[in-house]
Amino acid sequence: MVGLKKEMKECPVCGSEVEADAAYCPECGTDFDSDSDDVDYNY
Ligand SMILES: [Zn+2]
Q: What's the chain look like in SS3?
């Protein structure tokens, strides 16, 4: 299980790289769980 890069995303608030499945930013604590109207996700 080494060498697998996790999917990352950038925190819109502090710009830190966080795991894409993270519920919140570990740096600034922004909650990613709530839906954002600014982002289009294709399910
Ligand atoms: Zn953040």
A: CCCCCCCEEECCCCCCEEECCCCECCCCCCECCCCCCCCCCCC
